[in-house]
């Protein structure tokens, strides 16, 4: 009796697992129809297998639409493994950087604004833009199923400590922190834009076009880079270079940013 119950349960469990795998593959295939990044995440064989699963499950009407979606996908940009890895790590670093930026301003604002109330609108403006950047990269990570950096909690603590320390040191030190961070982040975003422009040029030489979704991503990164460079200008206008001691402080922050980028690209 026990063996009958055991074998029935095992069979039921295997069937349930198989159903789950098929449903998940179908949803991957459906995502891949709208996202070149998601498509590149899967091998062609996997996409075709998932599409077949989908076709078994849907009515004849949705079968037709599934086939036409698949045909559309084939005309889109398919990223190479190397390009996909580049985008994965770039977006992961961007999200971590924007998380840190929001926490730096959150911690800096109370002491800076208490001593210099006229800076409240500027601090709020920069915070609001950082919160917008963070939201953009959170959405991109979720959409393309990219994992956040494993260092997320460490960067949370480090950014809060950095923001609070420079805020307490005074307006000039807080602005020097912004100057140092934005110098590194501006370079970092520029590198990403340059790389994706190369992809565009390579495709144009082959007579192909970059996927519109990737064009939107490049435009987003360019806009965010420009806003970061605006923050750098505000910091310099607000006496970042008067911070004491300016050089060691900005050097430590810049090396810290480089290190955090290097680590977040990898883990
Ligand atoms: Fe930002
Ligand atoms: Fe910024």
TrEMBL record:
Record GO terms (molecular function): 3-demethoxyubiquinol 3-hydroxylase activity; metal ion binding; oxidoreductase activity, acting on paired donors, with incorporation or reduction of molecular oxygen, NAD(P)H as one donor, and incorporation of one atom of oxygen
Cofactor(s) listed in the protein's UniProt record: Fe cation
Binding residue positions for Fe cation 2: 130, 182, 228, 231
Alphabetic keyword roster: Iron, Membrane, Metal-binding, Mitochondrion, Mitochondrion inner membrane, Monooxygenase, Oxidoreductase, Signal, Ubiquinone biosynthesis
Pfam families per record: COQ7
Main location: mitochondrion
PANTHER family registered for this protein in UniProt: 5-DEMETHOXYUBIQUINONE HYDROXYLASE, MITOCHONDRIAL (PTHR11237:SF4), COENZYME Q10 BIOSYNTHESIS PROTEIN 7 (PTHR11237)
Protein name, UniProt field: 5-demethoxyubiquinone hydroxylase, mitochondrial
Annotated source species: Exophiala spinifera
Lineage: Eukaryota, Fungi, Dikarya, Ascomycota, Pezizomycotina
């Amino acid at each position: 009796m026990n063996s009958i119950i055991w074998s029935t349960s095992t069979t039921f469990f295997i069937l349930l697992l198989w159903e789950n795998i098929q449903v998940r593959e179908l949803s991957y295939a459906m995502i891949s129809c709208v996202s070149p990044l998601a498509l590149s995440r899967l091998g062609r064989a996997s996409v075709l297998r998932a599409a077949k699963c989908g076709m078994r499950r849907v009515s004849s009407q949705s079968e037709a639409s599934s086939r036409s979606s698949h045909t559309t996908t084939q005309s889109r940009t398919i990223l190479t493994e190397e390009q996909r890895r580049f985008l994965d790590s770039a977006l992961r670093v961007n999200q971590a950087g924007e998380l840190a930026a929001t926490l730096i301003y959150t911690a800096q604002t109370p002491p800076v604004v208490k001593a210099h109330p006229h800076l409240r609108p500027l601090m709020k403006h920069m915070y609001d833009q950082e919160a917008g950047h963070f939201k953009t990269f959170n959405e991109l990570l979720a959409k393309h199923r990219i994992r956040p950096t494993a260092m997320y909690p460490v960067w949370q603590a480090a950014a809060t400590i950095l923001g609070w320390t420079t805020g307490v040191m005074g307006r000039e030190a807080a602005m020097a922190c912004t100057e140092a961070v934005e110098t590194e982040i501006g370079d970092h975003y520029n590198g990403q834009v340059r790389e994706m422009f190369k992809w565009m040029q390579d495709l144009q030489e082959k007579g192909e076009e970059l996927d519109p979704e990737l064009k939107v991503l490049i435009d987003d990164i360019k806009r965010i880079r420009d806003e970061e460079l605006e923050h750098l200008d505000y910091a310099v206008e607000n006496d970042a270079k008067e911070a004491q001691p300016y050089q060691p402080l900005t050097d430590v922050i810049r090396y810290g940013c480089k290190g955090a980028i290097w680590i977040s690209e990898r883990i």
